[in-house]
Amino acid sequence: MPILSLQEVVQKSFDYIVIGGGTAGLALAGRLSEEPTVSVLVLEAGQANLDDPKIVMPAQFGQTFGNPQYDWAFNTVKQKHTNNKIHLWSRGKALGGTSTMNFYCWSKPTKTDIDAIERLGNPGWNWTEFIKYSRKSESFHLPAQEQLDVYPHTYNPNFRGLSGPIHTSLAPQFHTIDKLMQETLVNKGIKPVEDPYGGDISGGWIASANIDPKGWKRSYSASGYLQPNLHRPNLNVLTDALVARIVFEDKLTPAADRTASAVEFLFGDGSAIHTVKANREVIVSAGTINSPKVLELSGIGQSQILSSFGLETLVDLPGVGENVQEHVWSPVSFELDDTRGVLHQTLDLLKNPDTAAKHLALYAEGKGLFRSCISSFSFLPIQSCDLPDTPSLIALAEKEAEAAKAQGSAGMGEQVDIWLEILKNKKEPDFEIVALPCVKIALAPAEPSKHYFTLLALLNHPLSRGTIHIQSKDPRVHPEIDPRYFERQIDLEIILQEIKYIRSWKETEPWKSGIVREMDPGPKYQTDDELREYIRNSLNTTWHTVGSCSMLPREKQGVVDPQLKVYGTSNVRVVDISIIPLHIAAHTQTSAYAIGEKAANIIKATFSGKN
Ligand SMILES: Cc1cc2nc3c(=O)[nH]c(=O)nc-3n(C[C@H](O)[C@H](O)[C@H](O)COP(=O)(O)OP(=O)(O)OC[C@H]3O[C@@H](n4cnc5c(N)ncnc54)[C@H](O)[C@@H]3O)c2cc1C
């Protein structure tokens, strides 16, 4: 069935109600509805926005930020360690969720990071399983000869999915800056990775993008899992439906668990509460920020927090909204030398309206800058970078690990042990360098005729832990987000070393002759203390937040078990990246798809024979 009206949903019943038609939610709904005898309803707070050029046309990074038609536009509370800055946390509000606005980077975690999830007490959540489901979500398209002529892209078809709903390809533009960065890395002794989708990502590599080369459009959860399946009579979607809470039966199960019977939601701008009934399960896929909010408004969470808003605690689950972890980065930007015969085609060119119009026309012919993406990456173990400060950094890490264990929750000890193990390991990445093909985010002013690019100095495994909790009973009010950036100094120190490492490239070719000047941090920032201040002032979110509904044993502050079932309930699961208990060295969309795919199999297996 296509997208439904309110009347077709209210007081009706569906076997599965999925709260949130986002990245993982639509992957799950698409797979569950493969079984024709079950009915699936997706309740999505945003609009459909299907085929909207702002969403599907690449190279428009950040175009939908702050626009309520597309973006939740959350704000953090003031961050003490970033000079009291409030950080905007954009998240997609539409069918497709955050896959409507992400930056197309197709990146998979390390085997070690995924196996760590199993080590934390989650049998079946390991690399073998991850890669099985991740490949199921992906259709990789081989690069064209014209692309291979510019850059020798290598790949291993064994690591790629070839028939899944999400199309991935190699973006055709920007190979000049990719080449500059990757060749410099090789000359610095960093190994090129043949294909970064097999669990070993340490080194330099060119990423694929979730762009369908047929039409050069965004491939995302709505285009992959929903639109091709809208003919199914059992796949139902209601947009503009903001879920307020899950309703539970009064009677407990013999195991003393709560059973969800319905979901309450608001529709459009209205304030009336509507109800839809669940026959089998309610699945919360509202993303890392809103999934804990939905649970808390439903009476599941820390009883102290719930009672402070007059909410009855149905399941006392202290882990809800805790263990929040986020990747962060600081920009290091450069002016490129255009005088040596290399014509750099960066996104700065699109600031000129005439050039933008020309490239828009080219896009219609399948050419030009609007097929561009972010392609050049390096994930590096800090110990592989020959930095003189590494021994003192490890000493600080050991000290901070002890403090984090002492002050953290019951489950923090094991997380910290794995974190320290990875930091000390000479092969596992601790930080990431991403080449952004423009100067958009840098602080220094850009000149119109020049070409720039920015390296993001990004932290992969933060030690700081934040929180996300309701701040009102009203479902329309955003939760309070406190990532507690740099509460652990080691997080800032790792970024500091990363910036110093990038600066060390200046005597290495082709960097040496390809760069005119460093714009940010720039010559003003030289000493470690000056650079620390620069990092505090320039810090950005990577929008990869995880952990707010961590999959961990209940006594370790877990929210869901390895079947993704919320503790203390018989039929509520969480299926999105909020379940990741320890952050991974990867951008998070591939994990959201893999979680949605695996959850579908778990749920299908639970009910097999009962359809
Ligand atoms: C700007 C940006 C750039 C990014 N770039 C990349 C990238 O290049 N590569 C990469 O791998 N990752 C990237 N990410 C991260 C990645 O896209 C996300 O981690 C992933 O899409 C999250 O998937 P999810 O299913 O957990 O949540 P979402 O996709 O956010 O899904 C949650 C859904 O629930 C809906 N919802 C929320 N609350 C309610 C409610 N109460 N009632 C009904 N519906 C509700 C939301 O509207 C949304 O549709 C980026 C993220 C952002 C924000």
UniProtKB/TrEMBL annotation:
Substrate binds at residue 373. Residues 92-115, 287-301 form the Glucose-methanol-choline oxidoreductase N-terminal domain. GO terms for molecular function: flavin adenine dinucleotide binding; pyranose dehydrogenase (acceptor) activity. Keywords: FAD, Flavoprotein, Glycoprotein, Oxidoreductase, Secreted, Signal. Belongs to the GMC oxidoreductase family. Catalyzes the single-oxidation or sequential double oxidation reaction of carbohydrates primarily at carbon-2 and/or carbon-3 with the concomitant reduction of the flavin. Accepts only a narrow range of electron acceptors such as substituted benzoquinones and complexed metal ions and reacts extremely slowly with O(2) as acceptor. This is pyranose dehydrogenase (acceptor). It comes from Crepidotus variabilis.
